[in-house]
């Protein structure tokens, strides 16, 4: 293996509780019942806001509706991050690992289904430029299909100038693991 591709949320930053709280709030607003734990795992983690909102309202939403609900939910999430400094830090051991990867010139990037506003927030608050080439970070730009589609990992591997089979994926969500498998990163002989 020559490089590593990190999902961000749930791997380098353990923020599931903050996302769960924000999405439960929006679920209750959109369909009058909050997400269950199983729905959170299977329908939220690793999926785009469009996918999540479609699941919640039971029909394909307009782009405007996705943007409206997505931005409102993400603003709530970012506010919760800043109000919870005990939870708003990189995962235990992440800094040491990232320092090691940087010191040893091991290619690395982030492939996250987070949208630009959140990625920009993480870059600023966690000073991600200390460990990552910001131009190589892959995020949900509205054109990349959500996980489990392989696209995000294929793009990330290409940005590292590596073949997918030369990479390791750090993932926590079922959809993300399937995305890495579908890209040929996990499960290679």
Largest sheet: 4 strands, parallel
Q: What would you report as the Rg, rounded to the nearest angstrom?
A: 16 Å
Q: How do the strands line up in the largest sheet?
A: 3-2-1-4
Give the amount of beta strand, in percent: 5-15%
The end-to-end distance, rounded to whole angstroms, is 13 Å
Number of strand segments: 4
- Overall pLDDT: 92
Keywords:
10% strand, 4-stranded parallel β-sheet, alpha/beta, 50% helix, 8 helices, 189 residues
Protein described:
With 189 residues, the protein is an alpha/beta fold. The protein has 8 helices and 4 strands. It has a 4-stranded parallel beta sheet with strand order 3-2-1-4. Strand 2, helix 6 and strand 3 form a beta-alpha-beta unit. Helix 1 crosses helix 4. It is globular, with a radius of gyration of 16 Å. The mean pLDDT is 92.
């Amino acid at each position: 293996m020559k490089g590593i591709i990190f999902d961000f949320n749930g791997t380098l930053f353990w923020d599931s509780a903050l996302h769960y709280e924000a999405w439960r709030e929006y679920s209750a607003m959109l369909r009058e019942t909050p997400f269950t734990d199983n729905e959170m795992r299977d329908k939220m983690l690793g999926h785009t806001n469009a996918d999540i909102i479609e699941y919640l309202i039971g029909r394909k939403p307009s782009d405007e509706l996705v943007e409206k609900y997505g931005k409102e939910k993400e603003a709530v999430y970012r506010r919760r991050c800043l109000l919870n400094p005990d939870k708003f830090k990189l995962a235990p051991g992440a800094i040491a690992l990232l320092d090691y990867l940087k010191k040893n010139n091991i290619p690395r990037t982030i492939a996250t289904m987070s949208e630009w506003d959140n990625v920009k927030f993480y870059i600023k608050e966690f000073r991600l430029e200390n460990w990552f080439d910001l131009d190589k970070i892959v995020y949900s730009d509205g054109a990349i299909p959500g996980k489990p589609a392989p696209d995000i990992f294929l793009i990330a591997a290409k940005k590292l100038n590596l073949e997918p089979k030369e990479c390791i994926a750090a993932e926590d969500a079922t959809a993300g693991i399937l995305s890495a498998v579908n890209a040929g990163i996990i499960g290679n002989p």
